[in-house]
Design a protein that fits this description.
This protein is α+β, with helices and mostly antiparallel strands and 139 residues long. Helices cover 40% and strands 23% of the residues. About 5% of the residues have low confidence.
Length: 139
């Protein structure tokens, strides 16, 4: 006497495994998007801090050298040559920080410390961080 063989068990098993894998992919994709958003935010904040630091260093050097032609004038510095991945890779960056601007204005009142206004804009994809701050330079 032959036993009737149940057909379709393997098919049900494969369909169930595919459903579980699909659910896992859906959950992992949401987590990956969150991580991508957070890494982009951290990158933009770091670029903005680097631009502010570069602007302050440029202003301090001009104040020390008494380069009066840059005082009370708005200067847009070229950030295309700045490395975008400084400290993250062994090879130097090619192209610099894309979609960024750095605008510096040095003002000196008589008898007061020099003051620098720095405006920054950093973009990556559809996100843009803007900054505007006033800083006093102590010599």
């Amino acid at each position: 006497m032959k036993k009737p063989r149940q057909k379709g068990f393997v098919l049900i098993l494969v369909i169930t495994a595919m459903a579980i894998i699909g659910l896992d992919m859906y959950v992992l994709t949401g987590g990956a998007n969150t991580m991508l958003f957070q890494s982009d935010t951290a990158y933009l904040k770091a670029c903005k801090r680097n631009l502010v630091t570069s602007g302050l260093a440029w202003a301090k050097q001009n104040i020390r050298n008494n380069s009066r032609e840059n005082f009370e004038k708005t200067v847009e510095l070229d950030v295309s040559k700045m490395p975008s991945n400084a400290g993250f890779r062994l090879k130097p960056a090619v192209g610099g920080i894309r979609g960024s601007t750095l605008i510096v204005t040095i003002s000196i009142q008589t008898g007061e410390e020099p003051q620098v206004q720095i405006k920054t804009r950093v973009s990556r994809g559809r996100r843009t961080f803007r900054g505007d701050g006033k800083y006093k330079i102590r010599l």
